Amino acid sequence: MTRLHVSVTVPDIAQATRFYAAMFGAEPTVERPGYAKWMLDDPRVNFVATEGRDADAQGVAHLGIQADDADELSTLYSRFDAADADVYEEGKTECCYARSEKSWVKDPAGMAWEAFLTSEVIDHFGEGPVTAAPPAEVEASERRLPGCC
Fold it and tell me: Residue 148: inside a domain, yes or no?
């Protein structure tokens, strides 16, 4: 079963962690400096808050759908292909304290959506792709879509 992913950028991670822990009735599953993640079953969502100091960058950073296995990820990739949008296949990544495989699209309003499968929680934030650089034809501004989780 897939899981909705919501990533928000907040001005103060401690304040946001207190607020969301109370709102969800649960402590974060993963806490790191400037980062908190809740893997909730009710509602079934992977909710992330990442601290950011730029007021213009606060709010919803991106949305996504997290797969539970490789078959679900393949289905999500097919849906992205069918959505009539440019797909950026990021591939294997280390990002947001996790090792994942992911691809991205932007909806007609410009909101970034990711489809991903996480294989492991790691101790560092990560910087994105781990196998190869993005293709040269992808503009630098499109290589890193807003946030990652």
Answer: no
Q: 21 is written with which tokens?
A: 């822990």
Strand 44-51 with 3-10, pairing: parallel
The two beta strands, 35-41 and 44-51, are antiparallel
Angle at 75 between CA 141 and CA 94, to 5 degrees: 45
Unique residue bearing structure tokens 């196998």? 131
From first to last of its 149 residues, the chain has per-residue pLDDT tens of 999 999 999 999 999 999 999 989 999 999 999 999 999 998 899 999 999 877 778 899 999 999 999 999 999 999 888 888 889 999 999 988 999 999 999 988 889 999 999 999 999 988 878 754 444 333 433 434 445 55
Domain count, the chain: 1
Give the range of the structural domain holding residue 59, as residue numbers without chain letter.
3-143
CATH number for the domain that contains residue 33 = 3.10.180.10
pTM of the model: 0.78
The answer to whether residue 53 is domain-embedded is: yes
Q: Is 92 part of a structural domain of the chain?
A: yes
User: What's the start-to-end Cα distance of the chain, in Å?
Assistant: 18
